[in-house]
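Quick review question:
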């Protein structure tokens, strides 16, 4: 028996996914080149390959795994982008933004069902926490010690017991461009504006979070909107993050397997 990372009890552990298994299904696309697997780009190893391999390892007991499913994954699975539609985008598109200017449309969380808001928040916290305790099994950890021991402990208590989280600010950025929704990125942590920005992307949703009492644009936006979490609508294809993904795939990377023989410009266009 091993120790469950969440409840800290000695239990039989199951293979937990860093990214929910249900998300991988929606990454496969039927194109003129046939059904395409997802493309994994590793910027540290400078490789790009098509694969259906899922990232998993023994981490949680079955009871804690069920918490993540019940309070996060099942709810977000009703909201993210699939070939059949993009429910969260459709909900926001019908609402008037709380704040709007030439570059952003931002919404208070009260524009959708509170159960969806709680599920999105819980889901994001669970992914960031998993990245913190994950055994990356490589010299370069893409997340680092993003949360630190204090916030790792506080996130763990929230995930297990729903203890309140203080000084946590989040934006759920929703992609307004359906052609670029079929991507995800593993959690990363970067220093900006004197704060640590945590982010990951999945099926048309980009979760961005800052923790702590420092000043940041995200925290300031939350204060203006009057909530520790808000939604925004943006075109991901115009974002720095998306351009970085495309640039990585086109750049100096080792394109392996059948991915090396495909017309990348045509695939990106799809």
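Suggested answer, residue by residue:
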């Amino acid at each position: 028996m091993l120790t469950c990372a969440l409840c800290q009890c000695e239990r039989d552990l199951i293979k937990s996914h860093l990214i929910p298994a249900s998300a991988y299904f929606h990454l496969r696309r039927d194109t003129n080149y046939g059904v395409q697997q997802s493309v994994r780009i590793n910027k540290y190893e400078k490789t790009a390959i098509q694969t259906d391999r899922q990232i998993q390892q023994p981490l949680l007991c079955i009871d804690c795994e069920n918490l993540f499913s019940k309070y996060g994954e099942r709810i977000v699975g009703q909201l993210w982008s699939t070939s059949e539609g993009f429910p969260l985008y459709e909900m926001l598109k019908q609402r008037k933004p709380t704040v709007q200017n030439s570059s952003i449309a931002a919404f208070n969380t009260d524009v959708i069902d509170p159960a969806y808001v709680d599920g999105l928040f819980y889901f994001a916290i669970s992914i960031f926490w998993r990245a913190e305790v994950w055994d990356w099994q490589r010299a370069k950890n893409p997340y680092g010690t993003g949360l630190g021991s204090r916030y790792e402990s506080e996130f763990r208590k929230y995930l297990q017991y729903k203890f309140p989280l203080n000084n946590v600010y989040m934006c759920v950025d929703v992609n307004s461009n359906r052609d670029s929704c079929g991507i995800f990125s593993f959690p990363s942590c970067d220093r900006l504006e004197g704060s640590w920005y945590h982010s990951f992307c999945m099926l048309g949703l980009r979760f961005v979070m800052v923790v702590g009492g420092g000043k940041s644009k995200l925290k300031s936006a939350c204060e203006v909107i009057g909530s520790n979490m808000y939604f925004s609508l943006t075109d991901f294809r115009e974002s720095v993050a998306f351009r970085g993904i495309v640039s990585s795939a086109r750049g100096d990377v080792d394109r392996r397997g059948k991915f090396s023989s495909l017309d990348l410009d045509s695939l990106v266009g799809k």
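Why it works: DSSP finds eight helices and 16 strands in the chain. The two ends are 47 Å apart (CA to CA).
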